[in-house]
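Hi R.,

Here are the chain sequences for the assembly we discussed:
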Amino acid sequence: MLTLRDVTVRYGDTAAVDHVSLDLGSGQVLAVLGPSGCGKSTLLRAVAGLEPLSAGSISWDGVDLAGTPTHRRGFALMFQEGQLFAHLTVARNVAYALRLRRTPSARLRARVRELLELVGLAGYDDRLPGTLSGGERQRVALARALAVEPRLILLDEPLSALDANLRERLAGDLRDILHAAGTTALLVTHDHEEAFALADRLAVMRAGRVVQSGGIDQVWREPVDEQTALFLGYARVLRDDAARLVLEAAGLPPAPAVAVRRSALVVDGAGPIRARVESARVTPEQVRLVVDAGGLGRLDAVASLGSRVSPGDEVAVRVDVTRVAVLPIVPAP
Amino acid sequence: MRRIAGLLLLAAGPVLVLGVLFVLPVSGMVGEGFLTDGRFTPGAVLEVLARPRVHRVAWFTLWTSAVATLLAVVLGLPAAYALHRLALPGRAAVRAALLVPFVLPTVVVGVAFRQLLGEGGPLGGLGLDGTPAAIVCGLVFFNVAVVVRTVGVAWESLDPRPGQAAAALGASPSQVLRTVTLPALRPAIVGAASIVFLFCATAFGIVLTLGGVRHATIETEIYLLTTTVFDLRAASALSVLQIVAVVALLALAARLRAVPDPTAQRAVAPARAVRRGDTAVVLATLVVLGAMLLPIVTLVLGSLSVGEGWGLANYRALTTVGDDQALVVPVTAALLTSLRTAVDATWMALLVGVTVSLIVTRRSHSVAERRVRSTLDGFFMLPLGVSAVTLGFGFLITLDRPPLDLRDSPLLVPMAQALVALPLVVRTLTPVLGGIDDRQRQAAASLGASPWRTLLTVDLPVVWKPVLAASGFAFAASLGEFGATSFLARDDTPTLPVVIFRLLGHPGEMNYGMALAASVVLAGTTALVVLAVERLRVPGVGAF
Amino acid sequence: MNHASVRAALATASAALLLTSCSLTGGSEPSGTASDAGGAGSSGTTSGGTVVLATHESFHLPKKLIKDFEEQSGYTLEVRAAGDAGTLATKLSLTADNPTADASYGIDNTFASRPLGEGAFAEVTPSATPPEQYALDEGADRLVPIDSASVCVNVDTDWFDAEGLTPPRTLDDLTDPAYADLLVTPGASTSSTGMAFFLATVAAYGDDWQGYWTDLVGNGAKVVDGWEDAYYGDFTAGSKTGTRPIVVSYDSSPAFTVKGGRTTTAALLDTCFRQVEYAGVLAGADNPEGAAALVDWMLSDEVQSALPESMYVYPVMPGASVPDDWAQFAPQPTDPYEVSPAEITANREQWLTEWTDVVSR
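And here is the predicted structure of the full complex:
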């Protein structure tokens, strides 16, 4: 189990990571979610032992890792760009850590084959990294990181370099692989989709600090503030009258602010809110609308694919209660 | 085919320069030995190569150079790391100071070494004086800087992340070094080693001074055969042997240098604070520096020694022409001549060197093209491996008629020095230029950048710092160049090394003291100039 | 403009300044004559034109003398000094059909045969005649003696006094066990001084020189590269860390160790070999008249009297003056050893090969 207590990393006067405390139980996958430059990669590097701490401690199963150099931590780090060794073939890249441990060659070959199959690159053994696409490289990096079954795997935006299709597939694979192996993983990303696809637990980081952490559902439902809500994929935050109207329609008690997702308003003949359609765009899943709902102003809404809605139509809209989040505090406007 | 033609066209300038200044003179001088009474007699030359003495000399040259190269690399690597990667206090000054041995006249260093190792010296007990070990020590002393500089520059711009990835996969620091860092540095290390080897194999003064008369190398033998015995046939034979060996070595080096994918991720990483784990490296560096300092300290002490006491009299005398007017010009004037010549030699070496580096590092589109490039690459290394005596006399007998009557041109000295500095420039720049991802250039081109603009925006920012390092290198090399310079320098404008040599050639305590003081001034000036050059920044390329 | 950019601009500016001030033109004054360094140069404007002198790197004469020559003769003197005597001899031999100069000075009796044999020199009749004893047997019509210097074994007399030991006197003495490990000499193969000493032993012992050298090396003689190494590296009177009080040097050397009115070293005058340096007009010279005038000038009283202080050699002309220290402390040998230039040229390679075998055994 990984424990971070008041971890601080300073570069000169600025604290890239500022008193961060986190816990990660065995077998769990924790995603640290934050915008670029929030310090999440530095945090990851600190856990890996690549950045010296200015204050605080990082420990594993209660043992402080301060004196343990990177290569003795038993963690595997997968960099954002893969960082494959350009002078080694794919097979040798994957086998790198196995060779360090003097794995017998028969076992080593079998393991490399198994891993390459796992990441969908069977037969790529003798290719050089320079000849691979970004996605292929990333998958080799993953196979390389998994080769020696690390006690903790550190993932730096593992999927962000991939195309959408592959990303979805690999996200599923990765999750399965991590869960099947019971691997504990710490993932940093700026992409909430990636976080949701892989993690059990979520920590939201901003300007070097963790502003919220918890189970993924809990964070998802109860963002601590407006910025967090927006970062988690909520489309906008409504206040005052608009908030009251939406909450009332959702059957929730009144609150000063509420965050709504793009699909929070659903066209439904029985809905309590009347709105006029301003524009409509068909997507493979549903029809995305922009509606003007009286007191609420212009909002996103969705309609099922079958519904024939066109700009200018008056429609009835209901609120999907699972797609709104009540914000506990209201930052000054 | 069109690409190759274009390549050759671009290379034509440098090739022509080297053709006139190197190939022509050397072949002229070698040809002299192949002619007996005007007839071509190669058999006689081959017969020379069968002499047992030639075998002995060749073997001695080979093994001392190989051992010295190995030692220089082993000792230079920790220093390259410490001085280019760690935020050690005063590292810029130390880096500049490391070039000092380069400019010290070999005679002066030889005497300093002998004062250390000789019968009455502090290290006399080791019994090294006059042994091959002393020669190897001297060669290492002169050449460690080559390794530190060429490898250090490449190391500096090496992306640290693959190494971190390896560490995160469980590789210990030594395993990271062995499996990630050294392979990435291989082009630079092999390049440095081949330069060092060529310098060692053609070393002249230091071998004579430290080895005494007992140990001859191919280079000293060519000198002896040409100037003392006038056996041009034997000298030719040895020159041919030298050239063949150098070509073989360069071919081998090219093979060793070739990596599957030279593209290295470049990130000019800021120097890292020193940590506990660096103790060994820093200690090793200090030991190397300390060992290099010993002869220099001996030299400085000697320059401050006046009569039975100490003083600055030797330095004050530098503005005079010496005891009994040993000199034509004061040392200060000679220093100015040296600096001017070195500036000329430096820009010549840079002009040709940068062009050559660009040519040889562009990605080849066919096997033929790659061959052309690697042949060119080796071609420009040749001057390092061929005897200065052969080249010097070759100048006299081949460049003696219009339009190439360069024998008495005052430009001949900087040209000869540039020839020696050229390989240093090329070897410093090619590993860095070769590491630039060609896609960056393609990206620039696709955004509408002309080739010139691409050069300016993609290549220059990456290569700017190495170019400065190479300039310092070339500058020091030409300042210290003695072989060709003493052969060509004109009497009224001697360079400082020539003047120092002359001071040493006359008895008189003051002249000897002045020679040492002048050496110290030469060394100090070099270090300062190199330091200043490396601090130059061009606005807009200021990512450093 | 912030601090850093000011500094950058300064650095760039100073670099530009440095570069321009040291550009091609700055580094290469067109005339390159010896006279214009004084600022009063008149290169190329005098009636006689330029006369070019090829010489070795030890060549040196006071500027004032050169200026006087140029003013009196109307020639501009251009000196090309490079390399040692051997290099000069090779250079003249190789360019015998197309010389780079008009006159040459610095070929000595150990190297004279080769350029003479290649036809590098033209006949010359100097206005003054140096004493017969310096003339070459062959080629006296082409090479004119200018100066001489004898290579002699030198001893540190202070050292011997302090040790209570009598210094050696002859070549034979040097193989005496009493003087074991005390001699240092430059090598014959690497130094002209060493070669001269070797020739002295050849003259003294004839074909048995190998036996002598075997004994010498057996008695602990140290052979080093050059005269500088021997004198400044090993000689007790030349180096603070030197351990050897006997060195192969010159007859004039004791004049340079004068302290408090006496010299601390002495040259052994029975161990000397005399080197004579010659001047001559090069065959095919562009300016043979100027070259002849230059040779005459080298024999003039002014130049002859300047030779000791400028080049540490004795003048050949009897009337020339020598410094007091020289007259007092550095007498010349009266009957030095001699080997003819032709014999040297004929045997040099074989001698050196055999000599190297003996000393590196």
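Chain A has a mean pLDDT of 86. Chain A touches chain B through 33 residues (CB under 8 Å).

Let me know if anything looks off.

Best,
T.
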